[in-house]
Design brief:
Layout: H1 2-28, E1 40-41, E2 44-45, H2 51-56, E3 61-65, E4 68-73, E5 79-84, E6 90-95, H3 116-123, E7 128-132, E8 136-143, E9 148-155, E10 160-168
Antiparallel strand pairs: 1-2, 3-4, 4-5, 5-6, 6-10, 7-8, 8-9, 9-10
Length: 176
Amino acid sequence: MLKKVLLIIGILLAGLLVYLGVLWIKNVWPIEDTSLKNEGIGKLSIGMDESHIRHYYPEFAIANEDQGNVYYFDDKDSFIVTADAKTKKIVCMELRDKIDGQNFATKKGIGVGSSLADVQREYGTDYRKKDTEIYGNVIEYQDSKTNQKLGFGIDYENDRITVVVLYDYEKYKFPY
């Protein structure tokens, strides 16, 4: 009787480990590259010098944080740009909301409010799906030549993009 109970517990534990392994692999398994070479949001791109932010968007406010200078348009809930503390280069851009009078979108015209079909038409279907703590459902494209990832938060119920994130994954650890 004890052997049967131990066998059942062993099988359940093995099944749990396999399930957890599949969840982990799903988030780190390589995906086909999507070219993000000339990608950006608005007039900004990853790798630009921090001075370009002030040149193109003088109305941005600035805050100093541990990972570098953080610039934001309007408020910290709209459009945030992070520059590396050492190199002073842009390492992350996060578009969270539409801003009146501004056309913040990717170079291919995808922004908050676009549809999943729009994203797939412009960037293809080679993406990784993630369930994140901050943005919920996210699809993520990767370009290993430029070390960039482009993520889109998706509200599947309304078929709308809720957030756009572009970052250099070698220099910046995005906290999904």
